[in-house]
Amino acid sequence: MTKVKILAVADVHSPRHIKEFVKALSQHEHPDVFLFAGDMINRGSAEEYTNVLDTIERALGTSFPIIGCFGNEEYSEVRKEIVSIVGDRMTLLDEKSFIIDTDDLKIGIVGTQGSLDKATSWQRRNIPSVKGVFERRAKRAASLLKKMHGKVDHRILLMHYSPCLETCEGEDSKAFSWMGSRKFYRVVVENQPDLVIHGHVHNSTRHEVTVGSTLIRNVSLPAVGSITELNIWDKERTE
């Protein structure tokens, strides 16, 4: 039976948590794929992507693809610079999809920053029509998941913000609107990807929930305290 090993993490905020990241990596051997769920750098420090990738290479080598989405601290104005810095060392999915084709399994990954129920004050000031942006992201993710249905063995939604309240438990309930989006919860319910990986929620005390047949995992390093490891099998999923 074929197994695909996934390592996933978010919110390294390099260089802020880079020491914790190094320690967490030392507990693992190389995966089949490494997923970043956003905020791998701190406050738009694009050059820190080199530090993050070098850290992984020293710990685990380079024999696997690295795929990521943007978080809110990969500021929009530095995203082109980030893409230039990482080059062919990783693939960044900004409302795009990617298929990993192993010997026996095809795994489709849809990447997006995700949306919030309530825009932050900074977003309202700096992102024109932010409400429309959030709505568009949800519709785009749903469209990409639908296009992959029946064409791959497993579908993964890789996002930064949370798609549900359950993996936000531990945070102040008043802050839930700034953690994730009911729009994306509907995307999950209606499209049932096999796996949703997200970050952003640093103080979560519940890191896993199942919605229908979809496993949702918060992989935020500050919340989980480690790199999250998941295994995808032929026609079944196990942690």
Task: Give an account of the 3D structure.
- The chain has seven helices and twelve strands.
- The chain is of the alpha/beta class.
- The chain has a single domain, classed as Purple Acid Phosphatase, chain A, domain 2, CATH 3.60.21.
- The strands form two sheets. The protein has a six-stranded mixed beta sheet with strand order 4-3-2-1-11-12, with no helix packed on it.
- Strand 5 and strand 6 form a beta hairpin.
- Helix 5 packs parallel to helix 6.
- The longest helix is centred in the middle third of the chain and has 19 residues.
- The protein is globular and about 40 Å long.
- The two termini are 16 Å apart.
- The relative contact order is 0.18.
- The model has no long low-confidence stretch (mean pLDDT 93).
Mean of all residue-level pLDDT scores:
93
Count of helix runs: 7
Q: Could you state the order of secondary-structure elements as H and E?
A: EHEHEHEEEHHEHEEEHEE
From the 3D structure, determine the CATH topology.
Purple Acid Phosphatase, chain A, domain 2
Query: Portion of residues in helices?
Result: 25-40%
Distance between the termini: 16 Å
Percent strand equals 15-25%
Radius of gyration: 16 Å
* Arrangement of strands in the largest sheet: 4-3-2-1-11-12
Stretches where pLDDT is under 50 for at least 5 consecutive residues are none
Number of strands: 12
Structural class, from secondary structure content?
alpha/beta
CATH class division: Alpha Beta
Number of domain units: 1
Please identify, by name, the CATH architecture.
4-Layer Sandwich
Which SSEs are present, and which pair or pack?
Elements lengths: L2 E7 L8 H8 L7 E4 L11 H13 L5 E3 L10 H8 L4 E2 L3 E6 L4 E7 L8 H6 L3 H19 L5 E6 L22 H10 L3 E4 L9 E4 L2 E5 L2 H4 L3 E6 L3 E2 L1
Parallel strand pairs: 1-2, 2-3, 3-4, 6-7, 7-8, 8-10
Antiparallel strand pairs: 1-11, 5-6, 9-10, 11-12
